[in-house]
């Protein structure tokens, strides 16, 4: 019996005597593997920061090997008595559950490096490990679009990469990659083939900056998919269109035996700043309660009615 097994033995009172059963010699390595193996994707269950795994760098393609991250699902467990709702494998919601977060206590910084929220701010639950860029572009609606686009990019669903400007004009990645560029005059947008084809990651980020420039909360609030609050799922978002308006992304959802639901909510904001997970107050903190017929109250904006829920 190995030294590691001997160390485990006091914690497993039913552990058999070595050699007593031939079948046990086959089974105990499987049990040992279950005890010590990390959860899929390389995430540890304690939510401590670590270098991203190879699988995570493939799913969250902006990550560097030097980053120190905590998967959202490990860092922010549901409140007592609640269980995460089921999500479809490879869905946007499943992807968001693995969203890499920076170490606990990290502040929210603007695109210029100024501190927006200290790491001790009671309204802050966590900060995503996601670059903002140097321009004042990746704000609230843009952050939601960025995450959705990154999910599609990582899953090779590039044919679905298309978002509308506030004017209603569609900006499709496929056309941009072929060399089309937008010419904007007031509320009129025309697309002209004026660049060499380029489907690189660098070109993708340039296209996103273009989308950020001309899309906003009006773009998201006009989406036709408007689920009921009772059908909320990770990847949905609450949006109030305006100039300014605001949007918060539903990062995760959990429910208890009575059917009550809570959600983790994240946001970007003005000026462009780190995408961060908001913290609710009360018994389910940092998760926000979702009550049918009740507005969702967040720390930085007016309440979101259930009718403001949208889905890509």
Q: What features would you highlight for this structure?
A:
312 residues, alpha+beta, eight-stranded antiparallel sheet, 16 strands, disordered N terminus
Structure at a glance:
Helix content is 25%, strand content 20%. The chain has helices at 3-8, 22-36, 54-59, 72-75, 92-97, 140-154, 173-178, 201-214, 217-221; strands spanning 70-71, 83-84, 100-101, 108-109, 115-117, 124-127, 162-164, 170-172, 180-185, 188-193, 237-240, 246-255, 261-267, 276-278, 288-290, 309-310.
Topology:
Layout: H1 3-8, H2 22-36, H3 54-59, E1 70-71, H4 72-75, E2 83-84, H5 92-97, E3 100-101, E4 108-109, E5 115-117, E6 124-127, H6 140-154, E7 162-164, E8 170-172, H7 173-178, E9 180-185, E10 188-193, H8 201-214, H9 217-221, E11 237-240, E12 246-255, E13 261-267, E14 276-278, E15 288-290, E16 309-310
Antiparallel strand pairs: 1-3, 2-12, 4-5, 6-14, 7-8, 9-10, 11-12, 11-16, 12-13, 13-14, 13-15
């Amino acid at each position: 019996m190995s030294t590691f097994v001997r160390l485990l033995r006091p914690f497993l009172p039913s552990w058999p005597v070595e050699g007593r059963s031939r079948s046990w010699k086959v089974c105990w390595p499987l049990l040992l593997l279950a005890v010590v193996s990390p959860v899929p994707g390389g995430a540890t269950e304690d939510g401590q920061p670590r270098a991203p795994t190879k699988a995570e760098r493939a799913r969250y393609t902006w990550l560097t090997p030097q980053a120190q991250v905590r998967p959202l699902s490990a860092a922010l467990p549901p409140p007592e008595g609640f269980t995460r709702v089921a999500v479809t494998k490879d869905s946007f919601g499943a992807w968001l559950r693995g969203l890499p977060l920076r170490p606990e206590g990290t502040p929210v910084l603007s695109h210029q490096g100024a501190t927006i929220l200290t790491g001790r701010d009671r309204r802050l639950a966590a900060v995503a490990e996601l670059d903002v860029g140097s321009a004042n572009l990746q704000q609230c609606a843009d952050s939601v679009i960025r995450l959705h686009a990154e999910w599609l990019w990582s899953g090779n669903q590039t044919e679905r990469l298309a978002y509308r400007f506030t004017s209603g004009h569609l900006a499709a990645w496929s056309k941009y990659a072929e060399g089309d560029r937008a010419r904007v005059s007031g509320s009129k947008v025309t697309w002209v083939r004026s660049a060499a084809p380029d489907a690189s990651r660098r070109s993708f980020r340039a296209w996103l900056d273009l989308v950020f420039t001309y899309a906003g909360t009006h773009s998201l609030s006009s989406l036709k998919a408007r689920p009921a609050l009772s059908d909320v799922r990770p990847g949905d978002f609450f949006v109030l269109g305006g100039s300014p308006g605001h949007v918060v992304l539903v990062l995760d959802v959990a429910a208890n035996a009575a059917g009550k639901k809570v959600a983790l909510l994240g946001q970007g904001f003005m000026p462009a700043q780190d995408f961060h997970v908001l913290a609710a107050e009360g018994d389910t903190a940092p998760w926000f309660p979702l009550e049918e017929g009740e507005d969702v109250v967040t720390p930085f904006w007016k309440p979101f009615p259930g009718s403001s829920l949208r889905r890509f």
